[in-house]
Design brief:
The chain is mainly α and 111 residues long. The chain has 4 helices and no strands.
């Protein structure tokens, strides 16, 4: 049986995730959970760049290394600099195709 402390811990994690997600479109404005906000922001950017939208195409270009979310993330985790976007893009290509196929099957939309 789970303890009350287990539930408190899970609620704290969920609250932190919610605060991190709240500012992901403007990560520079985040005051709490900045690393999490940066991660959610970068994930959302990768989703858009990979063509995983909401049933419509989002044309988006960016200088990834200067993106505010990435800058915040790199500030918390300096080991990700220098970031090799070309290598990352190459390695993620096959994974992205698989994700697109799953999204298409789950939501019934052509990507």
């Amino acid at each position: 049986m789970r303890s009350r402390e287990d539930y408190r811990h899970e609620l704290a994690l969920a609250a932190g995730a919610s605060r991190g997600n709240r500012r992901h479109h403007a990560p520079a404005l985040a005051t709490a959970n900045r690393a999490l906000t940066g991660l959610v922001s970068v994930s959302d950017l990768l989703r858009r760049l990979g063509g995983l939208g909401y049933g419509y195409r989002e044309d988006h270009e960016t200088n990834f290394a200067e993106d505010p979310g990435f800058t915040i993330l790199a500030g918390h985790y300096p080991a990700i600099r220098p970031f090799d976007l070309a290598r990352f893009t190459f390695e993620m290509g096959a994974v992205l195709e698989e994700v697109q196929a799953v999204v298409s099957r789950v939501y019934g939309i052509a990507q």
